[in-house]
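Hi all, long-time lurker, first post. I run a small reading group and we've been trying to get comfortable going from sequence to structure in the token notation. Rather than ask abstract questions, I figured I'd post a concrete chain and ask someone more experienced to write out its structure so we can walk through it together at our next meeting. Sequence below, copied exactly:
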Amino acid sequence: MKLIIFIITIVILYLIYQKGWFTFFTKIIFRGNDSKKTIALTFDDGPQPIYTENILNTLKENKITATFFLLGANIEKYPDLVKQIISENHEIGNHSYSHEKLFFKKPEFIKNEIRKTDELLESYKIETKIFRPPFGFMLFLLPFITKQFEKNIILWNINSKDYLGLSAKKISGKILKNVKAGSIILMHDGRGIKGGNRSNTVETLKIIIPKLKAMGYDFSTISDLPLK
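-- Answer (accepted) --
Happy to help. Here is the structure in token form:
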């Protein structure tokens, strides 16, 4: 039953975004403008040694900026990585504090998850206007609350599924097969607050970036991504 409710909710929320219904909800973004060959690489759950560092190095080598949706708990653990992300001109989004599912949670819990991470980012002089819910899960309450924080919800239209432990070859094949103009690609530089191996994500980037460039794609942060 919960799965059915979730699917129905996602469909309704997508229609809200597409049709511009109910302005008391925040905007929900799945992809950018499909008339321009510009795409956005996004990374969730970080920062986390050593994977965030390796991803940053690869992006720097290729002169690409990306968007990192950071967890508040990991911001506290790894301040030097936060500083490196900022210093290399990447965008930072709010990904909650603890990475708990914001599904069937009380409003105050959701607000605290967003607020705590915002306050941590403010200490770095970062005021982010984008939020990605953990696991992409949400009901009507979350878009209503994020509207109060003046944030847009950023989802994706390509899920790399790098969290499944797939090989870099399989992950890159999936991305390259499905990429389109305006794509928002979901990847991970961390694994919640417990951490985990993201070496396949690092290797995937080394495969897909030159191929995407050869296909004529430019790279953008979420806030600079041309929208519909």
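A couple of things your group might point at:
The beta strands are 28-29, 38-46, 67-70, 91-94, 130-131, 152-154, 158-159, 184-188, 218-219.
The mean pLDDT is 91.
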